[in-house]
């Protein structure tokens, strides 16, 4: 064991509320995310409800999935929604040119997606096509989904079997407009976003929160340009618009795009590099927020990190366009670092969506293409352990004496923490990034009396430990009993390379 460090938490000084939507998800028509992951079809031997896998739904309900972004990603800006409604056997086909150049038969479309969201109990986040779609298409899609009366689009929805309008609280205006979404300049997109947002109408009280495609990582110019294009923000509830939020995308990898690093075979140096790069999310949020603050000091415009996570080289023998990768303890800690950053920036970050939920990139769930077996990844378990942060009030955690290591040109603190409170409970999340050493931590808990505590830990002997159909629980949370009550707090030893949560009962 090494150094002793303390985490000071004022339990009686709650900060901004952590939206449950930062625990959001993303499902693209990419590889085996939709087809095989969520959708198996009604005739499948895999247990399903109207074609949707029951085991996947159950696993995601268990972590209280708050929202699901669909249909892309890059795919969204190629997608024409009218191809995905009506009788399945009559739907036109298209080429999924971004992801494997495969033919998409549109059997999973608007009704199937909305059915999936209802089964999940998740809010839909529909990503509209700005890159190759028309303003009219966008406008019609919103009307089709959300209008109650006998308007042309509502009547069409009814003819396709759905009487009541759906609620679609979140609507994306394009995706990566600086890249696959049109290769646009920030200034060009700022105008288009205003135009498309105008026609993404609220129908009655079925209102949508519009999210304009935002910056790539540290492109602060993009954020600045969009913020500058807002009408002056007024005192009303909602920003003067025409949209309510900007997005941000950032992926963690250890090498260049040509060789992003391997999911399960990595050195200790690459372990730290990945975690150091994941830690960049903190800087990105701070700097994009600073830019946004200049135009919107009241923080009415939301920041939505609607793509984040690890992006490794695909698993050997799999289609390079399908982005299938394994998921280790390292991915779990990448996730926990992101959540710490989202919690710390709860005043600006209103939503985040890991890329992607099933079988693609940093997945929560992997399904075996042959046997259909389902595996929960270490990343899934971080979402489960953090469920208590949903809609809780953030608490600042002051870490004193955290050791650091030099990695990827910056000092990486080896322990990260965040916390929240709700009523008479609090939840503290602790990540030990140290590959080899345990760290003793004192939780210095001030302001309220702690009447009870229990903890869970996620770790494994090897840094690259991961779950497979043969060993589905190689990395799974277990109770952690070694909490010692001391005057004013708790003491514990954080195992090397581990993630630990402490639930506190407050008197
Ligand atoms: O998540 C995979 C892809 O990454 C998305 O389609 C795109 O938006 C991003 O570049």
Beta strand %: 25-35%
Name the strands of the widest sheet in spatial order.
2-5-8-9-10-11-12-13
Low-confidence stretches: none
Q: In terms of structural class, how would the helical and strand content be classed?
A: alpha/beta
Ligand identities: alpha-L-arabinofuranose
Distance between the termini: 33 Å
Report helical residue fraction. Answer: 10-25%
The gyration radius over C-alpha positions equals: 22 Å
Secondary structure: number of strands: 27
Shape: globular
Number of helices: 10
Averaged pLDDT:
96
Biggest β-sheet strands, sense, barrel: 8 strands, parallel, barrel
Describe what this molecule looks like in 3D.
- This protein has 507 residues and is of the alpha/beta class.
- It contains ten helices and 27 strands.
- It has helices at 54-62, 110-120, 135-146, 152-159, 186-199, 220-228, 268-278, 280-295, 329-344, 378-385, and strands at 4-10, 24-26, 48-49, 52-53, 67-70, 94-96, 102-104, 123-128, 170-173, 209-216, 245-252, 302-310, 349-355, 365-367, 374-376, 393-395, 397-400, 404-407, 410-413, 415-422, 425-432, 439-446, 450-458, 478-480, 484-486, 489-494, 498-506.
- The strands form seven sheets. The chain has an eight-stranded parallel β-barrel with strand order 2-5-8-9-10-11-12-13, surrounded by six helices. A six-stranded antiparallel β-sheet has the order 16-20-21-27-23-24, covered by helices on one side.
- Helix 3 packs across helix 4 (152-159), helix 6 packs parallel to helix 8 and helix 9 (329-344) runs parallel beside helix 10.
- It is globular and about 70 Å long.
- The chain starts with a strand and ends with a strand.
- The mean pLDDT is 96.
- The protein binds alpha-L-arabinofuranose.
- Alpha-L-arabinofuranose binds at residues 28, 72-74, 175-176, 307, 355-356, 361.
